[in-house]
Amino acid sequence: MAMPASADPLTSLAIHSPRPRKNSTLILPGFKPLLDSFLIGPENEALRELSQATSIAKLHERSPLLLLGSSGVGKTAVAMTLATRWINDAPNRTYAIVSALDFARSMVLAIESDDMPRFREQYRQVSCLVIDNAHELSGKEGSQNELIEVLNAHEGQDSLVILTSLTLPAFIPGWNHALASRMIAGYSLELQHPGATTRSELIKRLSDAQSLPISEEERNEINSQLGDNQSLHQLQGLLLRWRHHHRAHEGRVKPNKSKVIESLVESQTPSPKTPLEIAKSVAREMRQTMEAMRGPSRKASVVRARGLAMHLIREWTDASYQAIGGLFGDRDHTTVMHACKKIEDAIASDPELLRCIDRVRQKLLP
């Protein structure tokens, strides 16, 4: 059934993380949103209702809450925020907030150290459990079976379980049918990328946050040429490229703005290549080897090439931080997050890095 249109087309949902609490766990150290709020537009009307104070108070009645959506749509930020608001709605609520791969790793360590009772208590007896990127448990039969028992333990309790996933569990390869049924037993919500109205405001907020010299006319021109599947990180990348263009032509005759914006938008189009193909292209462009980029080398040129490859894979594909880390010597997802952030910061002041990205993109185009 269609949701009624809201009088206010945009609502800001302040992004929060829970404060440390006794008997609670938070293993998402790389979580750092670009903005301090998630902008809810008409395309995510159901989230507006879900985030109301009256809904937060009864959120556990919809447990398990399954948040779906493609990479970069904001699932983690929304999950963290809803969980934090529910936790803070009553005293003494405990929590465990982890990525799916960290859940699996913790289980392996618990088995190896003969400490499964403590592991099970950690996830079964908390008031609120958040499993981020649940799809990363694909093919991990033992972890999936344990997650079934965790969900069973929370069933009928005044507790809240939130899971995020790229897609419905029925469409995830190597997925336990019983777990799929348990995950969709509560409330499922698919988050959408921002539509035109929401995207316009996001462009303004991002440009203001980064002090970018973009006029309202230019913002509108950029927005009019964008498609409907732009993530917040892609918008940020586009604006950083615009700043570089502005600086490069400062004090000179500037080319036609519409043509420039069209070119910048085209350069944001995701690559049709695989993560490995992108990594190899970066290696060739920066005169490195895949062996060096996958290895432990901390040589500046290798670190730069590795970081750029990670950043472009994240920007141009749906690969998760965990999957990208696996491509580069099984590095931890927090290491990938840090590497991507360093490249994002460098792009803002390094024209040569932008030119390198352009060359890689041109070579990857079909």
Notes on the structure:
By secondary structure, the chain is α/β, with parallel strands linked by helices. It has three domains: 149 residues, P-loop containing nucleotide triphosphate hydrolases (Rossmann fold, 3-Layer(aba) Sandwich); 72 residues; 90 residues, Chromosomal Replication Initiator Protein Dnaa, Chain: A. It is 51% helix and 10% strand. It contains 17 helices and eight strands. A six-stranded parallel β-sheet has the order 2-5-6-7-4-8, sandwiched between helices. A two-stranded antiparallel ribbon has the order 1-3. Helix 6 links the parallel strand 6 and strand 7. Helix 6 packs parallel to helix 7, helix 8 crosses helix 9 and helix 14 crosses helix 16. The relative contact order is 0.11. The N terminus is likely disordered.
Protein traits:
six-stranded parallel β-sheet, Chromosomal Replication Initiator Protein Dnaa, Chain: A, Rossmann fold, alpha/beta, 366 residues, 8 strands
TL;DR of this structure?
By secondary structure, the chain is of the alpha/beta class.
Look at the structure and name the CATH superfamily of the largest domain.
Answer: P-loop containing nucleotide triphosphate hydrolases
Number of strands: 8
> How many helices in DSSP terms?
17
Straight-line N-to-C gap: 41 Å
In CATH's first tier, which class of the largest domain applies?
Answer: Alpha Beta
CATH architecture of the largest domain: 3-Layer(aba) Sandwich
Strand order, biggest sheet?
Answer: 2-5-6-7-4-8
Q: Fraction of residues in helices?
A: 40-55%
Strand content: 5-15%
Class from secondary-structure proportions:
alpha/beta
